[in-house]
């Protein structure tokens, strides 16, 4: 067990974040202590709550109640209907969680889903998403979004951009950084001494010798050869349509994809409920459930907490360097 609890930022209070936080606490209790950062009135009625003054208090309390660091919001929450007045509270709860991890009071941060439009409309949120905001808070220029489960770890080199922009934004520097950060993260956070990394091609059939695109020939394959010569156990570029079946996955510890859907479709197909979003390249551990706010089912008590449970458990293991 970690020496400090996980910080769980509340996310969008009008979404499913509060109810899955309560259900995650009930499932984990003291096996994976975490402290919820948010306004207690946003939690489901009847949730056993203990307001704490410091994260360390959560260790002793988590067996009997959900430990909460009171983070007052401007307004109550109506399920499915984000309130502009609460946008600033969502953002500041994330900032508070990061500060607690940076100070050592929490072992890692797990972030409940946010709704970017609500944050933009209510507080002028200036980032494409959680990942980019956390990078700014940590003062780092480049991070990698990895989706992880027991069946697959995959990291897209480009993330929240239009498909038409991928060939322009996918540069040798971007791909090299993605591979390097993934390699270092697998060693430091997942306890894999010699990571095996497979890289997908950009084009169908990895370009098929130039017949379907030349990026693989012109620079992707040479970059992989160069990094292999530096000592990395790396293969590719591989055709993306043949690298995610069972036998192929047995040959690598993580896959690098070239764009968002090339990475997320296979992991969500293989393990939809247990996929976890991990940010590599930060000076602290961050995980998140691999789903959104689900406004359509918020407040109905039917949201599946499995991805959040897995995200909290993975954060605990990563904090110990043995995920």
Quick structural summary:
With 323 residues, the protein is an alpha/beta fold.
Describe the structure.
Helix 3 crosses helix 4. The chain is an alpha/beta fold and 323 residues long. Helix content is 37%, strand content 17%. It has 11 helices and 12 strands. The protein has 2 domains: 182 residues, Isopropylmalate Dehydrogenase, CATH 3.40.718; 131 residues, 3-Layer(aba) Sandwich (Isopropylmalate Dehydrogenase), CATH 3.40.718. It has a 12-stranded mixed sheet with strand order 3-4-2-1-5-12-11-6-7-10-8-9, sandwiched between helices.
Please tag this protein with its features.
single chain; 323 residues; alpha/beta; Isopropylmalate Dehydrogenase; 2 domains; 12-stranded mixed beta sheet; 11 helices; 12 strands; globular
């Amino acid at each position: 067990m970690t020496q400090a609890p996980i910080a769980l930022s509340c996310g969008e209070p009008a979404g499913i974040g509060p109810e899955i936080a309560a259900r995650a606490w009930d499932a984990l209790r003291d096996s994976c202590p975490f402290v919820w950062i948010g306004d207690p009135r946003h939690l489901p009625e009847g949730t056993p709550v203990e307001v704490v003054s410091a994260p360390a208090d959560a260790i002793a309390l988590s067996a009997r109640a959900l430990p909460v660091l009171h983070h007052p919001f401007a307004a109550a929450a109506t399920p499915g209907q984000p309130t502009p007045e609460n946008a600033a509270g969502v953002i500041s709860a994330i900032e508070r969680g990061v500060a607690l991890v940076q100070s050592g009071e929490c072992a890692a941060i797990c972030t409940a889903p946010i709704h970017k439009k609500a944050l933009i409309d209510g507080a002028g949120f200036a980032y494409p998403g959680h990942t980019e905001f956390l990078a700014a808070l940590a003062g780092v220029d480049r991070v990698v979004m990895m989706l992880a489960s027991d069946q697959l770890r995959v990291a897209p080199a480009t993330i929240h951009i239009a498909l038409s922009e991928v060939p322009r934004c996918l540069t040798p520097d971007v791909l090299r950084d993605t591979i390097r950060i993934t390699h270092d993260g697998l060693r430091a956070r997942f306890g894999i001494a010699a990571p095996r990394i497979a890289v997908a091609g950009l084009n169908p059939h990895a370009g098929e010798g130039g017949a379907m695109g030349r990026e693989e020939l012109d620079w992707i394959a040479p970059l992989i050869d160069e990094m292999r010569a530096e000592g990395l156990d790396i293969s590719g570029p591989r055709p993306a349509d043949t690298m995610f079946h069972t036998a192929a996955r047995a040959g690598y510890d993580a896959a690098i994809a070239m764009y968002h859907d090339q990475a997320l479709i296979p992991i969500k197909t293989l393990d939809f409920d247990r996929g976890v979003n991990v940010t590599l390249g930060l000076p602290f551990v961050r995980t998140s459930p691999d789903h959104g706010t689900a406004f359509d089912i918020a407040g109905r008590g039917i949201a599946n907490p499995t991805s959040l449970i897995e995200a909290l458990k993975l954060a605990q293991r990563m904090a110990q360097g043995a995920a």
